[in-house]
Design goal:
By secondary structure, this protein is an alpha+beta fold. It has 4 helices and 13 strands. The longest helix is centred in the middle third of the chain and has 12 residues.
Amino acid sequence: MTDRVPSGGTKGTSVNHIAFGVQNIRAMVDRVKAAGYPIVTRAELPPALEVRDDLAYVADQQNHVAFVMGPDETKLEFIEVKDATAPIALHHIHFASPQVDEMMAWYVEVFGARPAMRGSFQAADLPGINLTWSPAPGGVAGTEGRALDHIGFEMKNLETFCRKLEGMGIALERPYGTVPALEIASAFIRDPWGTYIELTDGLAEVQ
């Protein structure tokens, strides 16, 4: 985390929200409400989708969902995954774009994500994370400086991957190198819609 005042929340950027899978969504919603964070499920879902006691059942995904507005207007989604092996885990990154097909194609080409559908949403899968897209009615802002400044992907052979990116004409905005304090190899790029992306080569054991 960076100690600074963000220029805005997640809504209106290329990353509308991030989602966590939880084993017990009722308990999670009650927990965040008790902590004083607003549940915004009704405001964030289409009017045709019924919301009861802050929860909605999404039939084409066969699970319950809820939305909360976290600190600094960071929008979060909770999805109930009853058979999950952990109480909470990252589920998906939900992008917003006026060019959904083109944005998804970029992540498929650059990162090798596998196209799929997640319910009614266009999506693509990477190991351990789903990428989901929704259309934005107008332009979207980039993420840098917002409450969610950037997303990150961890991979093997980052230096080789960075050479591939440069061959594709994708600039390394913060070139490949080691971050001494963390002993990790890192680089930063940006997608064509302004999503700031950190790439890391795995965490080394810090002594």
